[in-house]
Amino acid sequence: MSVxxxxxxxxxxxxxxxxxxxxxxxxxxxxxxxxxHCGQRIFGENKVQDILAKYQALPKDIQWHMIxxxxxxxxxxxxxxxxLIHGVDSFSTLREIDKQAKKHNRTIKCLLxxxxxxxxxxxxxxxxxxxxxxxxxxxxxxxxxEVVGLMGMASFTDDQLQIxxxxxxxxxxxxxxxxxxxxxxxxxxxxxxxxxxxxxxxxGSAIFGSRNI
Length: 213
Hints:
With 213 residues, the chain is of the alpha/beta class.
């Protein structure tokens, strides 16, 4: 398994407008550095303690994306440096991000996580809840938070038609907004996501190999 070969192969296959987030969760710094030396600068982590440790140890021009569920009481730890938060699923989390960003005199970009999968375990807002947030006066009052897009995770299933339908539903909603980023698609389904209009994919095992538990 070669991180370099995997990464370059994926990058060559991507349309120009699609951003690749290399999901480095559970991976040691040496492997992340391999991808870094191949030109990859955007990495995603799903735990605050891991993203903190890697931010401190690795080159400072890396753009870190928080891709896991973010608890409000942990926002303060990543507010000084985080590049994009993918999984915002409540207005109270947005409010906390804004509060912490203000302390560091910066604007933090966020994606609203929309629940498109059928599994109960998936986090996310309904489309109606997302519409309500996007239309709210309170969102416009947040000066240090910018909602730039939507994120969605398809069901964990082998049914490609179901995955396609879920991606289509989010793309259809996305097209009704003025947002710029549509983050959907992971190692097993990113090609399908791109076909349905994804502009950002989150790929881990297809680059780094199977995840360490």
